[in-house]
Amino acid sequence: MSCHCGDRSRMAESIGVHVVIKGRVQGVGYRAWLAREAAQAQVSGWCRNLPTGEVEAVLCGASAAVQRVLDACRHGPSWANVIAVDVVSNAEPVMDGFSVRDTA
Catalytic site residue 31? Predict the structure, then answer.
């Protein structure tokens, strides 16, 4: 799936967000879980652990699909304890698929 979040002609149908997920989200399989959730929703982007104990992610795709993944992020996998999902900015990536990146 391609996401052309910066393409103004597609802005109504596609969005991109940069988020930080806070709580007990490292060492609990959160990144692998998020990659599966994103793939199922056909959302592209990436995620990685931050040295602060948080998870950072970029989610890009159809507005409704991105919102579904954001809603799921607020719960996370069963071992996680999510305190907050902060949207820190809009993202304008052009990418395919979803990847798990190395820790920042």
Answer: yes
